[in-house]
Amino acid sequence: MVKEGLGEDFIKEVVRHIRAYDTYRTWEKRSDEEILKDFLKGDSKRSLSFAGHCETDPKVILRIHAFFKAVTSIIEKLSGFITSAVINIDGEGNGIVLIYAGRLILINKTIRDANRFRFKSLDHIRSEGEKLIEKALDLLEKYQEVAKI
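Structure (tokenized):
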């Protein structure tokens, strides 16, 4: 069920979702690589500034939404099942991500300290996305009847 080039498709989907949230077109001139830099570790000053205030940076919540909505979109494209995501993160950066098809929970991920939601490299983003997608597709293949309910 998993196709070749899944990682690249996933990265494009993440960028597409980030751009979809840019309603004022402020990132229009930014390249895909510039947009993805926000996902990478290294800008630790920014996350530390929010750490003492128990407040989650809105850009971090955008990254979390874009990442998991991209996972959801790819699963739906590859499986043909209508797939939805529920992402609930409180002001302190704790929450949950549920991705489901029908009555089948494909991904149930707890988020702790959302301000630290970053990756080591673009390859790390790809591999994490691929892992989640592959596990979800395996579950869908195994329990198709539940997803059809």
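The two ends are 21 Å apart (CA to CA). The chain has a mean pLDDT of 89.
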